[in-house]
Amino acid sequence: MLRDWSGGNREALEGLLPLVYEELHRQAANFLHRERAGHTLQTTALIHETYLKLVDQRDVNWQSRTHFFAIAASLMRRILVDYARSKKREKRGGGAIRLTLNEEAMNVAARERSVDLMALDEALTRLEKLDEQQSRIVELRYFSGLTLDETADALSISRTTVATDWAMAKAWLHRELTR
Amino acid sequence: MTNGSWDNAKRIFADAIKVAPAKRLAYIDVACSGDLETRREVESLLNSFENAGSFMEQPAAHEVADFIGQNKILEAGRSFGHYEIVRQIGAGGMGEVYLAKDTKLERSVAIKVLNEKFAAHESNLSRFIQEAKAASALNHPNILVIHEIGTAENSNYIVSEFIEGETLRDNLEKSPSKLSEVLNISIQIANALCAAHHARIVHRDIKPENVMIRPDGFVKILDFGLAKLVEQKAVGFEASTVKHNQTAQGVILGTINYMSPEQAKGEKVDERTDIFSFGVVLYEMIAGRTPFAGDSMSETFANLINSEPPPLTRFSSDTPDELQRIVVKTLRKKRDERYQTMKNLLTDLKNLRENLAFDERLEKSRPLDEKSNPKLFRGTTGETNNRTEAANNNFTAQFKQRKPLVALFSVVLLFAIVGLGFYLYNSQKPVSVANQKKSVAVLPLVNIGNDPKIDYLSDGLTESVINNLSRISSLRVMSRNSAFRFKNDQTDTKNIAAKLGVETLVTGDIKQLDDRIVINVRLINAEDDSQIWGNQYVKSSADLIAAQNEIAQAVATNLRGKLTDSEQRELAKHPTENPEAYQLYQRGRFHVFKLTPQEIQTGISNFQQAIAIDPNYALAYAGLADAYRSLAVGSEMSPTEFMPKSKTAALRAVELDENLSDGHTTLGSTLFWGDWNWSEAENQYKRALELNPDDINAHLLYAHLLSNLGRHDEALVKARRARELDPLFPFAGALEGQILNHAGLTDEALERLNKTFELAPNFWFPHLFASSVYIEKGMFAEAVAEARKAKELAPAQTVSLAFEGYALAKSGKRNEAQALLNELLKLSTTRFVPPNHLAMIYNGLGKTEKSLEWLETAFEQRDPKVVFLKVEPKWNNLRNEQRFIELMRRMNFD
């Protein structure tokens, strides 16, 4: 059901991509600068904002808030995995224009135990076949940065369900990725 | 794994993790009750769960933050089109912004390069282009100037002026602003939005990030990326842009904190959305936070729709009631209840600023014992908690009540001026300027569609308005020459006004819309950049004369108050009643000012057509006289052919209208260059200056005449007067340099010429004259270099070759001098080469006889360049020669 988005909705969301990119970039840049202060990357805000931008939109008939969040979160997943792919490609080759990486940014990346987003994406596609709700929760929690409560709210399910599903999905994905 | 067993595993896993880790295995043994497959799965998952550590604890975005947040950098020194990258100054998801150098125009610019990744999206690209177009359609000092939009190396980019400074966001983060600063910034933003709305453009994304503040306090609005035309009818935009806007309607763009309720709801927006966003920014400047900010985006949205913002006094207790009232009125949720126009809002803000300044002055000038109880005198109630609607409405009443008090204080103030006058005098300009002439510069109307068909009109109308206004003797009107220096960059009006030494500026734009010409004009008070008057004229081309008069009339009235009857008559006069002739005249001027022989010829034919339509068009005859003389003097074409034509036209101009100063000026100049009739030329210049004492051309040409007659002191007085009238006119500086040189003041001459280089680096005259000064100083290498520079800048003339050849000869490079001479001699078989120039090189080579011979030829061929015979120091070695003395006599010198 959730995957069943009509062409119009998709188009409307894609129309907002420049803004999503813009906002993501801004937040990422902010994040890199303020990392020491324990700042995190607030993709949540981005999702909310995107939502606000889409509500009441005339051409698009959003079936529900749940429906929107599902689409927005899968969009975030796509964007971030695309970024990971480009990042990898650029590390290998590099474009015509020289890339300058912020040193601070490199440190941030090195300090954290990194997750291979592309591998995770593939695993998540497999998980989706087993448990669609869990994969949805991963998209909302992990890719979109929603809190447990927000995720519960977005999916209209209980907080406890989200918590246990999230724990299991993480365990499942972790196992897939460490195999 | 089947669905059933997955669900089973899920249930058991969920319960297991609630159990203490040590007891989990025991628990699942029981829970799975012999289902080995499920048990294995749950155990494996629990194992993974316990070892996951920080796995996925941080949002996915962290994994790529370094990549998303990084910027592609164009290296410094790299060229991009004709721009050279200096450094990156900003970045966003859409692209990067660089400081760059425009190598053609030698100025700093900002280049925004759109990321290739995002340009692939068609909507991104059109948004990018739209930003440029919307902003470039606006010509306002508080709006970022777009220079160019283009493509290079497969990247799309916009080039704009480079603004040094910080964003309002940076400014807000530093420290709370003073009230005066808040008003100063907000009035400038309001000014910009007024102009945008006037052009029917809504910004739609007003927020502190889009406001730049320069170190000098000047404010610029950026990012018309979301700007939208209110009406399709607006000119200068392609149909596709308008279409794009229509499809984008309903999509909510912008940042929620600064959105109007209608915008956040995705409804159709108009100018009043900017008024709301402006109100949010104003609120934030005072309160340090936005009025509807919530902990989450949804909360902000809810506040925006449902809640009233806390009163400003909660954050800043000394917020004036009137300011609170203004802010509340901008932030009304229903747009019909808000300020309906930016203009009204602007007026209120300005009044507030004035009243506060008045209060401040009053405070300063009041005797000390009164200062001890300021509240009483300020007329405020001291009631600060104005939460309710009723209280809000009271603000108006309170403010109105202040008026009698203000009147009373005028008396106090008067007393204070008498008693404590110096208080005021220290901080304020002298109050009475009644005896002073009001000064104004009319800047060239900007042809905003860049429509070449009306290029001549933008210049021509401007010139006509200048001419009209010049007839009002109580106004000091900056001449065309100086005003036109700012044809391409009118952003910084304050600076322009300072450079020109005027108090007010007229700026505007012009565009063609079908068969109509749309002209927007504004009269700006340069001191605070406020608009004194503004209007839009939509005219058919037949009505342009009327438009010109209306503009001049409005400007004059706004500057002078009511005009006298004779002033009215002077203003209403125009050189022709025929619109077609008028347009032809404008075209003629446009072409002649381009100064190449071909353009001048085109101009001549325009003037002739104008005259054919209106045979009594004196100004067209004056233009014709100028054009012919320009061919003979500047373009070095046959003087015997063109000087008589110039004289005929000039005489006719004076005959048709004896009161036209242009006619006398051009006649004087023709008598000078062509007839060598010094005394009659002088009479004409005197008459021109009598008719128009501020006619800079008359001053300069008169100075030239006086200098050539050896009346150096008088010449310098006139030249300096010209420079005063027109501090930026490079010709004035160049000519003064030449006059100083001919007066033997070489150091002063160089100093003046160096300043002129700064004014106009690509103007050849100062280089030519500098070459001559260096010759006098014996610095021949420098003389050669300057002469070559002049030649490079103005390849058609040969006078620089004469100076170069003379300098080469004097420095011992006789072969090179001879080669130049040969070149000129060869050239003289195909075109007119002023014999004066040949004589000069011969003289440098020491060939006295040849030199005198060529000077005599110059005289016989009516070479205009022999007018320097008396003062040109390069002839000094010949002055005792009988033939030279005879020449001087025949030239009417002495």
Structure description:
- The complex is a heterodimer of chains A (about 180) and B (about 900).
- Helices cover about 75% and strands about 0% of the residues of chain A.
- Chain A is mainly alpha-helical.
- Chain A is globular, with a radius of gyration of 17 Å.
- Chain B is of the alpha+beta class.
- Helix content of chain B is about 55%, strand content about 10%.
- In chain B, the strands form four sheets. A six-stranded antiparallel β-sheet of chain B has the order 2-3-4-5-7-6.
- Residues about 225-255 and about 365-435 of chain B have low confidence and may be disordered.
- The interface between A and B is large, with 76 and 59 residues.
- Strand 1 of chain A pairs antiparallel with strand 1 (about 70) of chain B, so a sheet runs across the interface.
In summary, what is this structure?
The complex is a heterodimer of chains A (179) and B (894). Chain A is an all-alpha fold and 179 residues long. In chain A, 73% of the residues lie in helices and 1% in strands.
Name the descriptors.
heterodimer, A: 179 residues, mainly alpha, B: 894 residues, alpha+beta
Itemize the secondary structure elements and their pairings.
The complex is a heterodimer of chains A (179) and B (894).
Chain A (H helix, E strand, L loop, with lengths): L6 H9 L1 H18 L8 H12 L10 H28 L6 E2 L2 H9 L5 H14 L1 H12 L4 H8 L3 H20 L1
Helix pairs in contact in A: 4-7, 6-7, 6-9, 7-9, 8-9
Chain B lengths: L2 H14 L7 H9 L3 H16 L9 H9 L1 E2 L6 E2 L2 E9 L3 E8 L4 E8 L1 H4 L2 H15 L9 E7 L2 E7 L4 E2 H7 L4 H20 L2 E2 L8 E3 L5 E3 L6 E2 L9 H10 L12 H4 L6 H17 L9 H10 L14 H10 L11 H24 L2 H4 L2 H5 L10 H39 L10 E5 L3 E2 L7 H16 L4 E3 L2 H4 L9 H8 L3 E10 L2 E10 L4 E11 L3 H17 L4 H8 L6 H14 L4 H17 L4 H16 L5 H18 L4 H15 L2 H14 L4 H13 L3 H14 L4 H13 L3 H14 L4 H13 L3 H14 L5 H12 L3 H14 L7 H10 L3 H13 L21 H9 L4
Parallel strand pairs in B: 13-15, 13-16, 14-16
Antiparallel strand pairs in B: 2-3, 3-4, 4-5, 5-7, 6-7, 8-10, 9-12, 10-11, 16-17, 17-18
Helix pairs in contact in B: 1-2, 1-3, 2-3, 8-11, 8-14, 11-13, 13-14, 13-17, 14-17, 18-21, 18-23, 23-24, 23-25, 24-25, 25-26, 25-27, 26-27, 27-28, 27-29, 28-29, 29-30, 29-31, 30-31, 31-32, 31-33, 32-33, 33-34, 33-35, 34-35, 35-36, 35-37, 37-38
